[in-house]
């Protein structure tokens, strides 16, 4: 009897096909919508492997109703959607997809910085809508990245990749992290700063930290009040790190200059979300790792991890 794999979103056949000869593979047939909870629980109850997305809640209830489950492989670096302790208690291996998306996500973060600072989205929207009538001396003026001070909250792999890109713009880089990156400091000249100092001194504040109990709500009204009135805030990490109501107030009252957001606390973001009403907010639909090469590489890591576990071998990127 073949072992069963359940995939919670429709993936490209090239990513799934290598599994079909050896395993029974079932897959939710929608790419743009999450598998319903009742379907997920039913499929997981007989599955040996789950190939999951960040939008899937793999909680204790589901795990304890899945007696055959050996591995959960998450198509993301983050894994806040999975109850890691419940998985560990039930002998289930959990894996993720770090490393391969580092450079792609850093490209996106830097691109969002440029897009927000130079008001590129606003300018393009106006041009397409026929609202650009004439060149004006102060039309669509923005903030310079060149020789600005960049503050990075969360100096992991992606944070370091963003900081390396900043050197090409002759930016000074401050960073705040749970642990000092002494090698990066000596090699690249990055400077460690306490959070309050980073917020007060940076022209650009970029959040790239993981979501933990320590970082949840980290960027609140008090943190935003410490930032310059000309500062640009960028979040390419997790929406829950930011108090969105406080961010709205700071932007609406022009206590900070602009924000670029690839993530929101609740996704997909509601179309009546207050932040979407502000002209000084640039938004993207959580596309940090969205290059063809990177997404296929992430899927390869997931697929190989599933095969490794089902065949009794040690997988890469094991979390439990």
Description:
The chain is an alpha/beta fold. Helices cover 34% and strands 14% of the residues. It is built from twelve helices and twelve strands. The strands form two sheets. Strands 8-7-6-9-10-11-12 form a seven-stranded parallel beta sheet, with helices on both faces. Strands 2-1-3-4-5 form a five-stranded parallel beta sheet. The radius of gyration is 21 Å and the shape is globular. It starts with a strand and ends in a 10-residue tail after the last helix.
Distance between the termini: 27 Å
Measured as a percent range, the helix fraction is 25-40%
Return the average pLDDT rounded to an integer: 97
Q: H/E order of the elements?
A: EHEHEHEHEHHEHEHEHEHEHEEH
Query: Structural class of the secondary structure composition?
Result: alpha/beta
Number of strands: 12
Describe the strand arrangement of the main beta sheet, using strand numbers: 8-7-6-9-10-11-12
Rg (C-alpha, Å): 21 Å
Note poorly predicted spans.
none
Largest beta sheet, briefly? 7 strands, parallel
What fraction strand?
A: 5-15%
Q: Quick one: overall form?
A: globular
- Count the DSSP helices: 12
Question: What descriptors fit this protein?
Answer:
seven-stranded parallel sheet, 320 residues, globular, alpha/beta, five-stranded parallel sheet, 14% strand, 12 strands
What is shown here, in short?
This protein has 320 residues and is of the alpha/beta class. Helix content is 34%, strand content 14%.
